[in-house]
Amino acid sequence: MGWVLWALETSWAVAAAWALSAALLRERSTLERWMAALLFGTASVLTSVQALGLVGQLGRLQLALVGCALHGGMLGWSVRRVGLAELRSRLVSDVTAPVRLWRDILARQELAAWALLPAACALIVSGSIAWHFPNWAWDVVWYHTPKTSYAVQTGRITWVDTSVWYVNGYPELTELLSVWHVLLPHHSRLEDLAQLPFGLLGALTVAAFCRRASASPALSASLGAMWLALPAVALQLHTTHADVVAGALFITAFYFLTERDWSPTARTLTLLALGLYAGTKVTGLFHLALVSPLLLVRGALVLRAAKGARGRVLGQTGLALLLLLWMGAPTYVENSVRTGNPFWPARMKVLGHELEGPIGAEEIAGPPAFFGAPGAFERMVRSWTAPEGMYWPDVRERAFGWLFPYLLLPALLWVSATAVFSRERLSRLALPLLAGLSVLVPAAWWGRFTLGLPAAGLVAFAVLHRQVGTRYLQVLLSALAAFLCVASYAKASVGYQVLPTMGRRADPSLRDEDRVRMRMGWLWTPEAARLRERELRPGDVVAYDSATSFLGEYWTWDLRNRVEYVNHEGNDGVYLDRLRALSPRWVSVRKHSPAERLLLSRARAFERLFDCPLSSAVMYRVTGTDW
After folding, report:
1. N or C: which end of the chain has fewer CB within 10 A?
2. pLDDT surpasses 70 at 364
3. 3-class DSSP state for residue 581?
4. Residue 247 contacts residue 281 (beta carbons within 8 Å)
5. Is 347:355 a contact under the CB 8 Å cutoff?
6. What 3-state DSSP class applies to 132?
């Protein structure tokens, strides 16, 4: 029943988001309508989860009812605005767009379209991994998954008592989208699907940028697919790392921000995308600050040109700003109220003011932004051409494969250098601006943090493709781009570490999940995971202390148990009283700590189960009541 509920609610949300997009972007391209639909769908799902979570009512039934009502309202308003007949006509046009694209590819014999194959593989493989395997990516098991699990467990979105600093205070749009995928089916199997739609959003936005640069539909779609097939994108789609979400939202916001006329729709979508981006990662707030001068200038020019309609412009802008704040501000507001530091938990200096926190900013992101550390720029450039990429547990060196350093970067440099001599100088100068903003982040050498950079390179390639003029050179460029894209994806496929564990096996009793656990040293062993699923009942408490690292492993697949933080602070009596109040089924403590010695002194009540990998935590079962 849960899977049916999830499927119906998600289909309803998709239909409503598309209808709203079709009603508001009636005369725009299919690409822009689907881009807007993905933004509206994200915003509506986030609104449903966030509204219920902020008032402590985030339950399965409540989410289903609110989602149904909100999306029904969106669909009803769209039908009333443009009529059912026009929506049906738009739907036929948008759904048949792939057929028109295929015909254009065949008519032009566009060799770059081979990039559609690795892009499709990235989506299919990522969906399969998300369905078949538990969360296995390092950061995801460490703190991304617990954010979702705590929201489902507590029914609210707020700080929780924990020793894993990153669970509190980090922007959590991706994790809240995962709540939708977990709470409705009441199972965490679909938790890692949250980033898949944003892979499509990034690809659509790159394609729309290329169409703006007068590239053909076939070439534009091929270049959008190349963004999706980049190692830093493709290998992260099946996780909740949030960098694909952030990168896609950033380039989408930049696309609408740089529209020539900056219509009311473009203004709204710009601020909506920026709000979602700020709610995804702290770099979203950082980039919002960087582009704010451009936002103000463009807004002032629109207001000056409006003359008699300035009140209407101000009203539309005010509503868009409210959207931005609703999507992006809650985490920073709560952090400020609780700690005085909106960027919790990092200590840092902002405009000469010291912000307090338990850890230094350099412990989170390494060197400061704007290449503040010695050699930071050179390290970034070297990472693009590293002899071997580190493709797991996430993408670091050579994050853009061979495509970017050997083709897209030269194209970007050429188009940037010649932009001032072009009649299209403003749109072409936007590309180095997008690239520059993308790398002005901490640890820019880590490619998954700078996904706007290859997007700018792909659009520059589209410009160069048109500039060469002759069909012969265009075919050569398309073939080279396709080869580098496919080869890069094939080389990076070693990052799909779980794929060798899927399929037929000599020992029928050894599941695919078991083989993944044996391969990934930070996950619980197959025996420990089976014991967790078999033994923990609904409402059972698993207590843990500060020795715990990979907290995501402490919940069952359907999140039926509760996980609570109980740390020994030096007083045996207080510690035992806190445990008794929770009546835990399992207790995780630091090895050789006072807490473990206390449990060992009550051997009749506590039974040692297993050591937790890559940490000093050890798990005990509570076997008695007299302790």
Report:
1. N
2. no
3. helix
4. no
5. yes
6. helix
- Which of the 8 DSSP states describes residue 447? G
* % of the chain residues with pLDDT over 90: 85
Gap between the Cα atoms of 260 and 266, Å rounded:
10
Q: What is the rounded CA–CA span in Å between residue 12 and residue 16?
A: 6
How far is it, in rounded angstroms, from Cα 118 to Cα 358?
43
Strand partners, 611: 618
Joined together, the tokens standing for residue 191 give 């938790």
Decide: helix, strand or coil at residue 305. Answer: helix
Rounded to the nearest 10°, the torsion over CA 172, 154, 60, 12 is -10
Burial 14-52 (b: 16+ CB within 10 A, else e): ebbbbbbbbbbbeebbbbbbbbbbbbbbbbbbbbbbbbb
- 3-state class (DSSP) for residue 543: strand
Sign of torsion, CA 238 369 321 254? negative
Alpha helices in 451-506 (DSSP H): 452-467, 471-492
Task: Please give the radius of gyration of the chain, using alpha carbons only, rounded to the nearest integer.
Answer: 25
Tell me the pLDDT of the chain averaged across its residues: 94
Q: How sure is the predictor about 366, in pLDDT bands with cuts at 50, 70 and 90?
A: low
Instruction: State pLDDT tens for residues 335-351.
Output: 999 988 898 887 777 77
Between CA 249 and CA 496 the distance in angstroms is 25
Tokens, residue 378: 């050179």
177 or 354, greater pLDDT: 177
Pairing of β 346-350 and β 353-355: antiparallel
Residue 139 has a CB neighbour count (10 Å cut-off) of: 17
The closest of 132, 224, 137 to 454, measured between CA atoms, is: 224
Distance CA 388, CA 449 (A): 19
- Tell me the two tokens of residue 69: 């009502």
Considering Cα of 447, then 453, then 459, then 464, what sign does the dihedral take? negative
From CA 44, how far away is CA 60, in angstroms rounded? Answer: 16
Q: At what angle do helices 196-212 and 452-467 cross, to 10 degrees?
A: 30
pTM (two decimals): 0.96
Distance CA 529, CA 540 (A): 16
Residues 309, 196: Cα–Cα separation, whole Å: 40
Question: Which pLDDT value is given to residue 126?
Answer: 97
- 89-93, 142-146, 512-516, 569-573: segment of lowest average pLDDT: 512-516
For every residue of 204-266, DSSP letters joined together read HHHHHHHHHTT--HHHHHHHHHHHHHSHHHHTTTTS---HHHHHHHHHHHHHHHT-SS--HHH
CA distance 113 to 104: 10
Among 46-60, 120-134, 440-454, 508-522, the range scoring the smallest mean pLDDT is: 508-522
